[in-house]
Each structure stands twice: as structure tokens, then as C-alpha cells.
Amino acid sequence: MTPKYNFDETKNSLVLTFDGRLDTNYSLDVRSAIDNLLNDLMKPNVDKAFSVCFNFASVDFISSAFVGICVACAKKVGKESFSIVNTNPFIKRTFKIAGLDEQLNVQ
Amino acid sequence: MADYEKFANEIIDKAVLAGALFHQFDQYQTDIIVKKVFQAGFNQRIYLAKIAADETRLGVWQHKVIKNAAATLLVYESIKNEKTVGIIAEDEKDGIVEIAQPLGPIFAVIPVTNPTSTVMFKVLIALKSRNPIIISPPAKAMKCCAETVRICYEAALAAGAPEDCIQIVPEPNRQLTGYFMSSQRIALILATGGTGLVKAAYSSGNPALGVGPGNVPVFIDVSADIPFSIENIISSKTFDNGTICASEQAIVCEDSIYDEVGKELKRQNCYFLNDDEIARVEKVVYDREKGGMSADVVGQPVSVIAGRAGITVPENTRILIAPQEQVGADHPLSQEILAPVLAIYKAKNYHEAIKICIDLNYLGGIGHTACIYANDEERIRDFSLLMNAGRIVVNTPSAQGAVGGIFNILPTSLTLGCGSGGKNITTENVTARHLINIQRLCRRRENQSWLSISPDHLADDSLNADFFLKEYSKNK
Predict the structure, then answer these.
(1) What are the structural domains of chain B?
(2) Beta-strand runs (E) in B325-402
(3) What global pTM score does this model have?
């Protein structure tokens, strides 16, 4: 299951949009799809800068498994090229308490 | 960074993340997790009791079943209706709203005397307050603690709890424990164990809820129902072979009822040691170099202790009774022995009896538990006012009474606070409400009495406290 996404070829940037509960089951479902998508998009442009943004505008719950996806994704594209945007304050606080808000560029 | 530090940090990293994710859970979701974990632990109470007794080689497995049942069913009953998430109280008139927040990762040290029950108790109160917990088992109870953690964790995960909300340190040692305790990312230490451990917890720089050692005096007043008192004392002192630190350590009674008390003890299969036998038992149960009870008699039955002491007692003996006259460091049996060995003191009169109780209470058991059997309200009150004990249990077996929920309505707990006497921050039975931060939203409610005092008056050196007291309460 691939989440909604938008790829801007000129900027070489990928925005993935999530909503609702990103619980363990959902995370298990999307993990490989996200991984495959990143591989497909990064491969032809291996020499160019590539950025990934997770849009959390409608996310109201995250699980440990989804945090794992965020960390893996940030590692793959590089810390500076990964961000999570439009978090609600509760999700923002969750990343803050976990000590991951800076590492994952949570906005 | 040393290997043990890396190892500890991996566990703490996971606990921190679990703690962050736990903030998202509401009261309903939290309560479902707690219920499922209680059910899983309760359903395995017999299995866990047997493996705990097999591994530790102390106590009585049937009694450990009761401990496991109390640590799950009674703990669950005592916390299930507590509000521990979000807004927990609102006072419209005073303008105060109380908001509960979790603390964060809890480092929980487990005693060998009550391993599986203490793990389940601490897990339940941690989950109820949405805190991740790291269990540090004793070396002699690692397997049974790991099995308890596995059962609780699987149930918690199945109920939707965050991953890694319950973890165990596989092979803790002093260095590793010290590192966990002093980690900036540990929110609280739940330290149940010996004095050294509790001191280390309090010295770590992190908040800690600890316990103190016990030395429980039990006063049988002339107004007491003696057969009832003895029956209760025996049921407590023999429970799990005396491993509970709230169990009775010395009976004290007046001369006028001493013979009757002795007769009843004998009738209920307790054996009075003579002077020679006392000397032999002292050598077995007390470690003079350490200055405390021998670790290897904790939770052992009468037959083992008598055998080691080289004395012969009737097969059905339930407790070894040691008549004593003095209290102090030079009198081993006036001190805490977590085994079925009980001192008894004959006092000339009521005041002498209470003074012996005070001496026993202050000999290594300050702040813990004291026990009285009486039907005279005035004496019960006197005794309570004179003891330095977090729990003064009346006409109740002290081990089961102090734990709460069976013979009284104290919250069921396997971590009994001993107040400043035991170097603890609380005298209460530690439970879920000790594991939350309570934030107070304070609405504006002006103190008109204070605001009506003129700053010019405050700056006037000729006006004293009496003037301001009048001003403060003027027109009320």
C-alpha cells in the first residue's frame, strides 16, 4: 500500500502525505511501499540532491513502528534532506519528548 | 563509551521513545492495557510462583501464588478507577484544574524475596500512569522476572501499548545498575531492596521512591483476644517463610499475660528455644561481620534453620520463638530476620512494654510498620502516636495488613514507603498516583485581603505583625 505522494521532478523532492492513525499495522503495510518508492525515484537521479518530506497535516497518532520508518527514511536520504511538516501540537510534542524533533526536522 | 554504557543507552533510547508515544494514549486506552496485563499476570500466577520458588530457593510457592494474585487482582482493583490521564480534578470555585502527565522511563529494582509479584505490581502501576518501565531483576531471580516481563509485555502489546513499554535488563550488575540510576533520561527509580540499594537510588541525582528496612514490633495488649492474636501473628510470620519485610519480628506483652501468650503460641505449634538453642540459632540467622541477618536464611522454613543450628524441634513447628530481654545491635534476634524466627519480650507493665516497642521500632525499622492487638481504643491510639511507622496495623497480621487491600483499605502495594525515618520521601504505600506529575492550571482568583494591604504600610517600620494580621482579616 503506497501512501499519497507528489514528486517534483525539477526540485527532485518527494512529499508523502499521511493521515489518521499511523499505528503498527499501518506501518507494517506501508514500510516496504515507501522503501520501494524511494528506491525507484532515487535511482535515476543518484547524483542529484533528493529530499523527502512527510506531510502530517491529518495525522493524530504515531506508533513506534512509524517512528522507525521516519528514522530509516532520514538515514537513507540524509538528515538535511528529510523533514516532517504540518504536525499537530500533540505529535510535535511526541517527537520532542522522544528527542527526535531535531534529528527528523519536525515542523 | 564503555560497552555497558552503550548497552544501557540502547535500552533507555527505546524506553524514551515508548514514553513519548505513551503521551498519546487517553484514559480509556490506558485502562484497557492495564486490564489486559492484569489478566495475563493473574492467569499465570501459579506458573510464575512455581518458577520463582524453584529459582530463588526461598519461600513457599503456594504463598507466592497468593502474592502474585494480590499483586495483580488487588493492585488492579485499587487503581482501576483512578484518574491518571489528562484532567483528573477540577475545582470551579478555587479555579484549579489538575492535569496528570506521565513521568517518563522508570527504572525498577526488584527484590529476590518477592520477584514475580513485585514485577507485576510495578508494571501495572507504571502502565496505569503511562510510563515505560525498565525492570532490573536480582541475580537470583533473573529467569522468573524475565518470564513475568514477557507475559506482561505480550499482553500490553496485544492491547495496543507502545513497543518497549516494558523492558528487562538481562544481566544487571552493580556498574550497569549505577549507570541506569544516574542517567539523565531516567525519570524515576522505584527502588525496592536493601538499604544500600535504596541509598544508591537516592544518591543518583534522579528522583527515587524507595523503601526502608523493617523491624516490626507487635504489641499484644492485655485487652487483646490472645488466641486470635497468636493465630494472626503466625499466619503473617509464616507467610512465604517470613520474606515480607512487614512481617512481625518481636512480640511484646505485659508480664500478666505472658504465660497465656506463651501457652497459646505452644498450642499453635510454635517452639520456645532455650538459651543454648537461641545461641545456636543466632549464629545461623545472623551475620556478625555484616551486622544483619544472614542472606541465606531469608525465606527458609523452620526445618532448615533448625537443621543448620543443630537443634531438634517437633516436625510440625511453625515458628521458632526466642525469649529476649534486651534490644540492640548486640542482640541479633532483636533485629529483622526474614524467616520464621520470632523474638518475644516480657514487660513489667504497659509503659515498659511500649518502651520496648519503641526500642525495637528504632532498631533498624524506623518508619516501616508496627502492629498492635488490643480492644482498648485509648491504648491503640497511644501506641500509634508513639510509633514511627508508615503503617500501624491493628488486630491484623502485619505482613498482609501492611501490603493493603486485604485487611484494610490501604492501596495494595509491594513498595512500602517508610518516610524520613527510612530515608524515603513518603510514608505511603506506593501506587500509580505516585508516578504522575500533576500540573495545576490556576485561574485568576485574587486574594483581596492581601491586595488591600497598602504597600506604604508594608514599608512603614513602625507597623508590626499584629497590625497586619488585623488588616489582613479586616471586614471579614
Answers:
(1) 3-211+430-437 (3.40.605.10), 216-410 (3.40.309.10)
(2) 341-347, 367-373, 389-394
(3) 0.94
